[in-house]
Every structure is written in C-alpha cells, then in structure tokens.
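Appendix B, example 12.
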Amino acid sequence: GFTVGHLARVAFGQYGLPIPRPPSDELLVVPANIDAFASDWSIPADDVVLWVELSEITHHAVLARPHVRTRLHDLMSEYVGAFRPDPTALEGKLEHVDLADPASLQGVLGDPEALLGALQTPEQQATLRQLETLVAAVEGYVDHVLDSVGRKLISSYGPLTEALRRRRVERGDGDRFVERLFGLELGQAQFDRGQTFVQGVVERAGDEGLADLWRSERTLPTPAELDAPGLWLARLEIDEGNSE
C-alpha cells in the first residue's frame, strides 16, 4: 500500500520505475504529477509533457524487447524472492519504541534502511550487481536519446534537465525505500554511471555501435563492462569474429 501510494504521488508515467510491463502498445502518464512539477520549477507544462512522453516511449522501446524484458524480470524476481524476514532484527529495533509516542514507532517503520536491513540477504548482492548494471545501461541510453532529440524539440530543455537532476539528487526516504524494495537504485550516481558507459560507446563506435546494446541478451553489458565500455565493444567484436 505504501509503495502504490508513494508512486501515485511522484511518478510521471508507467516507467517511473523501470520495471517490465505486460506486452502492450499503451503508455500511461500521470498529468497531476507532471503539472505539479512544472509549476514547482516554473517550466512550461507542455515542455514537461513532451519530455515525459519521449522518456516513456524510449523506455518502452527498450523494455518491450523480449530479451530485455525477460532478463529484467528474472533478475528482479530473483532479487525479491531472496528476501528473508528477520524477526530478531526487527524486534531489536522495536525494543526502543515508546508506545506512548506514535512518532517513535513511525521513526522505526518509516526508516527504509532499518526495514530493508532486516530483510536483505547476502545472496541478493550478486543479483543486485547484475540488476543495477542493466538498469544503469537502460537509463543511460534513455538519457542519451532524450539529449539527442529533446534539445531540438524542447525550448526549455536546459532548465528542465537541471530540475530533473535536482529531483534525482533530492530523493526522499520514500523513493529510496520503493526502489530498493525492487532492487533498483535510481540516484544521480546510477544515472551518471549509465551515461558514462553510453558516451564511451558513442565516442568509440558512434550511434550505430550503441544500437548493438539491445540486439540480444548476449550484447547486454556485464558489471565490469559498464565501467569500461571498451571491454564491451571488444567482446562484441570477438563474438562477431567467432560467428563468422
């Protein structure tokens, strides 16, 4: 209930969290949240709407690919399925709650780190690394497309992207809790990591080389390759050479 309620207040569209959706050509946006953001940052609402539409379409184009959707679904299912309740850890945190003070209970149950720390398991770490790599690649690619197209179509693109960057940096506990519940990390550092990978690929191989990123499950980057795009390009060249 908390997750659904939180997303209803902050998400711009159905890819507010980059998670796989059932195959469909339908895209959904949340006008009230878009209008509120545009008003808060004094940015033309039409510009924000166009940015959201471009972002949703680009996310959809990537995540609707069967092998990307399947890989993301499998990693998220593996991560979420590995949660293990730890009553002892939760009991330890609840021992310090003053039942006469509702704020004391809220302080414990409203702390994402405390709750997730009691549930996360070491087995999730390897899965989390793979999941963060895929999500960073997706978000880096989406940002690259938006930079390429949005600058030409959106008059306030500079102020808008700065406002969006601030929104990422200033995420609250609710955002982090929802993201980590699904094994996602959508802070600015994660976006920067994806952008650096994409920029490295484009500098070496152009947009044509970048298009290979979504060709098949084998062309998705590994964690090491995400931080060294040259390794990813070298592996693709070796794979293509062997296939010939």
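The chain has 13 helices and no strands. The CA atoms of residues 97 and 104 lie 6 Å apart.
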